[in-house]
Amino acid sequence: MDIEKELQKQLLNERESDIFRNSYDREIRFYDIISSGDSDLLNAFFEELDKGPSDNRQGVLSDSELANQKYHSVIMTALISRFCIEAGMDISVSYSLSDIFIRKIDKAKSVDEVWELQKLIASEYCTRMRNSVKKAVVSRHVVLAIDYIRTNIRENLTVEYIASALSLNPSYLSKLFKQEMGRSISTYIRDQKIDIAKNMLRHLDESSLSIANYLGFSSQSHFIQVFKKETGMTPEEYRKKNYHQSWMGKE
Q: 195-242: per-residue pLDDT in tens?
């Protein structure tokens, strides 16, 4: 079998028919949304897809439309599972969920059924990741604060800003958060931003300036300063060491 010949033939056919893959950045952002437990963004993502066909198209893995969707769903499930493990989900739980959902995909009888399974899989993993953050939390106010921070992580968040949004006293919220989470709100916000930045540096080609702007840092230099203080490396040093190696355990 001449794989190279088949590869060049397929690439030519795709160029001629204007077929292209889902953009890499878009896919990574989808998996990041799930592994970060951001249910609101995930719902918005699926609502956009439900409105109609996207300009992004999947590769053809089978001549059968149903089989093609099943194959893509299995790949999606495997990737979600690994992204969530990387973000802290128990390995046995993640793999077991993956096995359960892949068996359901295998038994699906229609493309619509597979599509609904895709949404269920993404939502289940996303919800579990979101809830994992809350397990150590006792009070409703801290849960609300965490939800608010994760939903608005791109903003320049402060204790006063969060407390105001939740109609709470800043001093009360600060004390309660530190008591239950073992770290201050400002430290929690910083850690969340750095975790997202590390993920973007591992998977994307975004510049430090773009990441700084995306995460609401006051400037690129401030982002680099904070990142280096937390990791011992500049963002570019971190990228060179970890780019596309997240599943290899080379953190």
A: 889 888 887 888 999 999 999 999 999 999 999 999 999 999 999 888
Boundaries of domain holding 129: 3-134
- Whether residue 244 sits in one domain with residue 151: yes
Q: What are 166-197's pLDDT values in tens digits?
A: 999 999 999 999 998 889 999 999 999 998 89
Give the C-alpha separation, 245 to 13, whole Å: 32
Residue with tokens 């969530």: 84
Gyration radius from the chain CA atoms: 21
Write the secondary structure of 151-190 as one string of H (helix), E (strand) and C (coil): HCCCCCCCHHHHHHHCCCCHHHHHHHHHHHHCCCHHHHHH
125 and 229 together in one domain: no
Encoded tokens for 50:
């439900």
What's the count of helices (H) and strands (E) in the chain, helices before strands? 13, 0
